[in-house]
Automatic annotation (TrEMBL), chain A:
Signal peptide: none
Pfam families attached to this UniProt entry: BPD_transp_2
Keywords, sorted A to Z: Cell membrane, Membrane, Transmembrane, Transmembrane helix
Organism whose genome encodes this protein: Mesorhizobium denitrificans
Membrane topology of this protein: Multi-pass membrane protein
Superkingdom of origin: Bacteria
Protein name: Branched-chain amino acid ABC transporter permease
Location in or out of the cell: Cell membrane
Membrane-spanning intervals of the chain: 26-44, 50-69, 76-95, 101-123, 130-148, 186-203, 234-256, 268-286, 293-312, 324-344
Gene Ontology MF terms: branched-chain amino acid transmembrane transporter activity
GO cellular component: plasma membrane
TrEMBL record, chain B:
Protein name per its UniProtKB record: ABC transporter ATP-binding protein
InterPro entries given in the database record: AAA+_ATPase, ABC_AA/LPS_Transport, ABC_transporter-like_ATP-bd, BCA_ABC_TP_C, P-loop_NTPase
Keywords linked to the UniProt accession: ATP-binding, Nucleotide-binding, Transport
Molecular function (Gene Ontology), one example: ATP binding
SUPFAM superfamilies per the UniProt record, alphabetical: P-loop containing nucleoside triphosphate hydrolases (SSF52540)
């Protein structure tokens, strides 16, 4: 009933190429955006900004970057964490070298640094694929983290070996650093994430997205329809690394406030990869659903016993948490191997039919 | 401008400035070896503009290798190929596409995760040029280009009568339709030479009749030159203007179907002969 698509005819290709050919989808997105931009910021506490909302957005953005490479272009990467690090360190160097530079510009520029590094480490993809490529990205992961540790210039030779985010103002409002208000940071991250997501949707549904998907599904046939494999793969690495780099810069500047090299180590890469896989490879929506499950669920579970007044030791909560989250992930993958996004698709198809299933 | 499109415009062949009946492609003394295995030995034949040329032969005769040489998957050790008056030896498949050679595969080589529409749109990749910047914004030039090509693709979809599966992922389609989508993708490239590797393999009679009709229409209405490999002799003899016969990598006959049919060497190759 609610999702009835009958009667929504398209009379031009222009209308058929709209972002949401079905009206209800547009309404749904509108409601989500109202929640994200208006209702949540008004009601959320400082804790939920820092522990839930901002990290979900940033992780979803990183997963989106990885999804473009792995889900759309079919090139498996295990080095996402390190590329996030490249973005973060690049942003740090740019901000400390040009303190007056607008932080949006700095973050946008640091994405380009990450994209360049991504393309360099993407070069092996021209000759190898699948697990073998994954191994070379793993090499990138280890090499880059080692570089963050050993190359003093990157962290301005600070004695701790870590990077510290200074207070950064934009149009008179502190957006990053110790003095920034969580709600400002939330809006900043939300703005960047919305914009990048919109760009990503546009790229993936157009000529370039088709090119990537063609390479993913059958590279020989892709070459046969005139797709230059080198261009397709390297552009996927560039766009993916750009987004991952921006996510890395946000990760440190708008959320963590400081970072050590080992923050970008392999657990971060795996975390982002899990989000992309559980959310659904080859889907934009999936990254958000995956990030909610992987990032937000443990936080929610951790606060539940306290809220319900159940006297459990915090260590026990930690253990239970790991078990519940692990079991949920396995459950979702067993029920729907193609990820949460596919789950939503099925629900949507059912809703379109409902209540007349024939 | 808005007049209904002529049916002949449906499958526009690349404008190559070659008159029908003149030489489109000339294969001269091509030999291909894999180590010590000779796949093709000293084969010469030509394809004239506007004809349907068949390559036949028993299994392992080197037919598919020949197509692979033509569209750049393999580089022959000896010999030359002249296409549209330009001689070339080593080339990449995507260069062949740019020259106007499109191809379908023996085992369907579609993009399984993509819809029929996207598969055929992918066939137009070479003709679309809007860069990343425009693609990011979507509205404006990128969308205009997309719609312009969508119109061409819809013509092909109409022509092949696959409107009902426009949005279906091709992995879910039955084999016969997949073959048709693959033909559609090749047509979307608007080739001057269309290579078909066993377009009717594994089809029933009705599907074969449909496919034959499509091949004849592509050839007849638009003058697209076709070079096909097929095992169904009835189909080959009915469709093709000229046939070249390979056996063990060598050419044993070349000519109009009737001559080839009565050639003793061809009969021996197909039926076997007591040594």
């Amino acid at each position: 009933m609610l999702y009835r698509t009958a009667g929504q005819f398209k009379t031009s290709y222009h209308a058929d190429h709209a972002l949401f050919p079905v009206k209800q989808d547009a309404w749904l997105l509108g409601i989500i955006l109202i929640f994200a931009y208006a209702i949540i910021p008004m009601t959320a506490s400082e804790f939920s900004f820092n522990a839930l909302l901002i990290p979900v957005l940033i992780y979803a953005l990183a997963a989106l970057g990885l999804n473009i490479l792995t889900g759309y272009a079919g090139q498996l990467s295990l080095g996402t964490g390190a590329f996030m690090g490249v973005g973060a360190y690049a942003c740090f160097k740019i901000i400390t070298a040009f303190p007056d530079l607008n932080i949006v510009v700095a973050i946008a520029l640091s994405g380009f640094v990450s994209a360049a590094v991504g393309v360099a480490f993407g070069l092996p993809s021209l000759r190898i694929k699948g697990f073998y490529l994954a191994i070379t990205t793993l090499a990138a992961q280890f090499f880059l983290v080692w570089l963050f540790e050993k190359w003093g210039w990157l962290y301005n030779y600070s004695s701790s070996g870590a990077i510290q985010v200074p207070n950064i103002k934009m149009f008179g409002i502190t957006v990053a650093g110790p003095n920034a208000a969580p709600v400002t940071q939330y809006y900043f991250v939300l703005g960047v994430v919305t914009l990048v997501t919109w760009f990503a949707i546009n790229i993936t549904r157009g000529r370039i997205g088709r090119m990537w998907k063609a390479v993913r599904d059958m590279d020989i046939a892709a070459e046969l329809v005139g797709i230059d494999l080198m261009k397709a793969k390297l552009s996927a690495f560039a766009v993916s690394s750009y987004i991952v780099g921006v996510a890395g810069a946000l990760f440190v500047f708008l959320w963590r406030g400081a970072a050590e090299p080992n923050l970008f180590d392999i657990p971060l890469s795996f975390r982002v990869l899990f989000i992309a896989i559980i959310g659904g490879l080859g889907s934009i929506l999936g990254n958000y659903l995956g990030a909610m499950l992987i990032v937000a669920l443990p936080v929610v579970l951790g606060t539940l016993p306290g809220m319900l007044g159940i006297p459990i030791q915090s260590a026990t909560v930690e253990h239970l948490n790991v078990m519940i989250v692990g079991a949920t992930i396995i459950l979702f993958l067993v029920v729907e191997p193609h990820g949460l996004a596919r789950f939503w698709q099925i629900i949507r198809e059912k809703l379109i039919m409902w209540p007349f299933p024939h | 401008m808005n007049a209904p499109l002529e049916h002949t415009e449906i499958v526009a062949a690349g404008d190559d400035g070659i008159a029908p009946g003149e030489l489109l492609m000339d294969v001269r003394n091509v030999s291909l070896r894999f180590g010590g295995v000779k796949a093709i030995t000293d084969i010469s034949f030509n394809v004239k503009k506007g004809e349907i040329r068949a390559i036949i032969g028993p299994n392992g005769a080197g037919k598919t290798s020949m197509l692979n040489v033509i569209n750049g998957f393999y580089t022959p050790q000896e010999g030359s190929i002249t296409f549209r008056g330009v001689e070339r030896r080593a080339m990449k498949p995507h260069h062949a596409v740019r020259q106007g050679i499109a191809r379908t595969f023996q085992n369907v080589a579609l993009f399984k995760g993509m819809s029929t529409l996207d598969n055929i749109m992918a066939g137009r990749s070479v003709k679309m040029h809007r860069g990343l910047g425009w693609q990011m914004l979507w509205h404006g030039p990128a969308l205009q280009e997309e719609i312009a090509h969508r119109e061409k693709v819809e013509e092909i979809i109409d022509f092949l009568e696959i409107q009902h599966i426009r949005r279906t992922p091709v992995g879910k389609l039955p084999y016969g339709l997949q073959k048709r989508v693959e033909l559609g993708r090749a047509l979307a490239m608007e080739p001057s030479l269309l290579l078909l590797d066993e377009p009717m393999a594994g089809m029933n009679l009705e599907e074969k009749e449909d496919m034959s009709r499509f091949i004849l229409d592509v050839n007849g209405q638009r003058g697209t030159t076709i070079c096909l490999i097929e095992h169904d002799m009835g189909v080959v003899m009915d469709l093709s203007d000229r046939v070249v016969v390979l056996d063990y990598g060598k050419k044993i006959a070349d000519g109009v179907p009737d001559d080839v049919k009565s050639d003793q060497q061809v009969i021996d190759a197909y039926l076997g002969v007591a040594h």
